[in-house]
Design a protein that fits this description.
alpha+beta; binds adenosine monophosphate; globular; Rossmann fold; about 425 residues; 5-stranded parallel beta sheet; binds glycine
């Protein structure tokens, strides 16, 4: 069986890696892939834009591909899956309508209200004056979100009224382009954030292991938000009983809401949740794809072949699939970034030491790298994701950090406190 993975980040490297662990998968084509996928045996990069529906369809047909797995949200939001399905190609990822769940926060809020999914109270605005009036009535802290896709930069958690006011002005002055034409203003929630990535064939939905990300660049969760600086799975913050509540209160009603809108959603529904101090899960966002770096922590624990899950979703057979099998272990992924990220950073940095860092339980996923004439260099802000599996969290973290010690590139930066919330949780399970 051959597959196409669309995208070029650590998530896509992990997806291709996991597919190729199965003897049934003979080749993965990454469009466009990165230095890590270029080095993966039986994996081939094809230089083509992730949104080039015609090119991807041609590549799938010429190579007799069993399915296309789409990593990032942008091509899904632009209708890549619809275009491929119209050529009878199996696709793991929702069409343009379903992708609105991530591409429009106002649309997602409407769906959640209709489907009675627990989420932060919110109001939607199309002009600055009414938005400003609203935040003045509500007061801070409050959360201001550009409606559309803004590459992870559209959300401001405003601790003061002044911050909320500048965020509203920025969005309506066109800082995020059309993504900021509408603004969602949301109640500020406190509690631990958990990412539940679920797979669905549009009829049945099943969660993968819950994970936790680290959004902020600085240790102790300080500084600006990033794409994610590290993750681990599973998390004790979401024990099985709570995950069962997420299934019943969030995933199933959301799928029903999609069905009620006539949407055939096949792929990942990623619920970004906050577990409130009262212990209740509330949705703060939905994504229409695998999380990055959560995927780099979740997939190394998955024993069930990924292609079986993907094919079952594409062919609407998820209900008859046996329960997914997981390693009885923990995984941690620590992201190594270029100095300056998420602001300006250098590219083209030479990377060394990956081969010595890897072993049977440690894998280095490439996020922003390229391989050219045998030289591995950086191309992005997040450069590598170092993932390790071990019987427990502290050993998995220790393994990931000792692998990091063997990898060098100039000015590399990583957070040394990945997993700090679990440590806190272990010492104060109710907090
Ligand atoms: P998003 O891009 O929607 O994931 O939001 C980015 C980050 O903002 C989230 O990971 C949270 O840390 C934070 N955030 C979003 N919505 C809320 C909320 N209602 N209350 C508190 N924090 C939030
Ligand atoms: N790790 C956050 C995301 O994938 O959106």
């Amino acid at each position: 069986m051959k597959a196409i993975v669309v995208g070029s980040g650590g998530r896509e490297h992990a997806l291709a890696w996991k597919l190729l662990r199965s003897p049934k998968v003979t080749e993965v084509v990454c469009i466009p892939g990165n230095g890590g996928t270029a080095l993966l045996p039986n994996c081939r990069n094809v230089a083509m834009a992730e949104t080039d529906a015609e090119g991807i369809a041609r590549c799938a047909l010429v190579n007799n591909i069993s399915f296309v797995l789409v990593g990032p949200e942008q091509p899904l939001a632009q209708g890549l899956a619809d275009a491929l399905r119209s050529e009878e190609i199996r696709v793991f990822g929702p069409g343009k309508k379903g992708a609105q769940i991530e591409a429009s926060k106002a649309w997602a809020k409407d769906l959640m209200a209709e489907a009675n999914v627990p989420t932060a109270a919110a109001a939607v605005f199309t002009d600055a004056e009414s938005a400003l009036l609203y935040v003045q009535q509500q007061g801070a802290p409050i959360v201001v979100k550009a409606d559309g896709l803004a590459a992870g930069k559209g959300v401001t958690v405003a601790m003061t009224l002044d911050e909320a006011i500048s965020a509203i002005k920025a969005a309506f002055s066109g800082q995020f382009g059309a993504a900021g034409d509408r603004v969602v203003i949301e109640e500020f929630l406190t509690g631990q954030e958990v990412s539940v990535l679920a797979v669905t064939d549009s009829q049945t939905i099943r969660p993968l292991l819950p994970a936790q990300d680290h959004k902020q660049i600085g240790e102790g969760d300080t500084g600006p938000n990033t794409g994610g600086m590290g993750a681990y799975a599973p998390t004790p913050v979401m024990p099985p009983a709570l995950l069962e509540r997420v299934q019943k209160e969030v995933l199933e009603p959301t799928l029903k809401g999609l069905q009620d809108r006539g949407i055939d959603y096949r792929g990942v529904l990623y619920a970004g949740l906050i577990v409130t101090p009262a212990g209740d899960p509330k949705v703060i966002e939905f994504n229409c794809r695998f999380g990055d770096p959560e995927t780099q922590a979740v997939l190394p624990l998955l024993e069930t072949p990924l292609e079986d899950i993907v094919m079952a979703c594409c062919e609407q057979r998820l209900a008859s699939m046996p329960p997914f099998v997981w390693k009885n272990a923990a995984a941690a992924c620590v992201v190594m970034a270029a100095e300056g990220y998420p602001g300006d950073y250098k590219k083209g940095l030479a990377i060394d030491g990956i081969a010595t860092a890897e072993d049977a339980e440690t894998v280095v996923f490439h996020a922003g790298t390229r391989l050219s004439e045998g030289e591995l260099t950086s191309t992005g802000g997040r450069v590598l994701g170092v993932s390790a599996v071990a019987p427990d969290f502290s050993s998995a973290l220790a393994k990931a950090y000792s692998a990091i010690d063997k990898i060098q590139f100039p000015g590399s930066y990583y957070r040394r406190d990945i997993g700090h919330r679990i440590k806190r949780h272990e010492s104060a399970p109710d907090g």
